[in-house]
Write a structure and sequence with these properties.
four-stranded antiparallel sheet; 50% strand; OB fold (Dihydrolipoamide Acetyltransferase, E2P)
Amino acid sequence: MAELKLPELAEGVNEAVVSFWHRKEGDDIKDGDEIVEMATDKAAFNVPSRSSGVLKRIVAKEGDTVKVGGVLAIIE
């Protein structure tokens, strides 16, 4: 099991909002696949997977605010 977490962002930016999930629970995921789009007040960006497996559970829903290091999803 691997946790997909919000990575470090630009200096002074400590959180981002989930804009859109590119994948749904149950989808096969490969290392490097873009999984979710996040947005800050300055930019939008995609978060890639750091492991392969199945997207077991989406923890942060669209519209949720997530702090850096917060869990976005579980990949099994």
